[in-house]
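Working notes for the structural subgroup meeting. M.R. asked for a predicted model of this chain before we commit to crystallization trials. I am recording the input and output together here so anyone reviewing the notebook later can reproduce the run.

Input as submitted:
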Amino acid sequence: MNTRQVEYFLAVAEELNFTRAAERLFVSQTAVTQQIKALEEQLGVKLFERTKKKVVLTPAGMIFQGESRELLHHIDAIMDKVRLASSGITGAVNIGFAVGMGNTGIVDQIRHFNVNYPNIQMNFKSFSPSALLKSLKNGESDLILAPVFDEKFLEGLCYKTLDHFSLIVVLPSRHVLAGRETLTRYDLRNEKLILACTEKGELGEDRAIMRGFTAEGINPQILSKTEDIETIFFMLSANMGVTILPSYLSTPLVTRGKLNAVPLLPLGDQVRVAAVWSQENQNPSLYKILPFLQ
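Returned structure, recorded in token form:
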């Protein structure tokens, strides 16, 4: 059974006349008769009683008439959904993000997109920076929102810079430097640093942080390297050292009480936050959200 047979059946059922049904469908009466005959053979029932004077629906035909209308309506709805999904008006997009992105203006852009495309489902998942890139390359994420310390790690990928954030020094609230309005790398020369990066610094975060120290001839002690921000905050709260982070991570510190965030000079040292995606990704919903990320 195909939709043409159903359409032909409905035309005859409504006209109760094969000739008028054929004219309505812009086909020959023979074509209508053949399609109805084939449909009846497939169903194993007679749908019409035909005489020289009239055509009437059989009891089976009456049931099939109501069901077939619903069938065509359902098929039309499916086709509409498929077309909308193909255009990106409906669908889904998987978004990976780094810790702290919720404290940036990116969330307002996401909200604006959601208002304009409420039928596109957004699935969010938080990753460490290194896991973010892996999730993009293995297809787990369509789009990632991440800090960028070195552009070379984005080679072969598409990206759009969304914002720049200055650096802050995060340290225990009872630390002797915690009350300062600003700090320099020279002020941190004798401090133990806990760096927010992978153990081997695969994404260049540690080099970006240490570059300023090297330029001033300072060689601070590095106590630990970890991507897990909560681990860093735990160690700081235990008065084990200090760290340098992008300023968007200062917001959640306000409620912790045991930690302070102090701007790091020079303010020109900044971390870029970018939206990153693969040009090989064919998800149409991805390309609907990109114009909203600025």
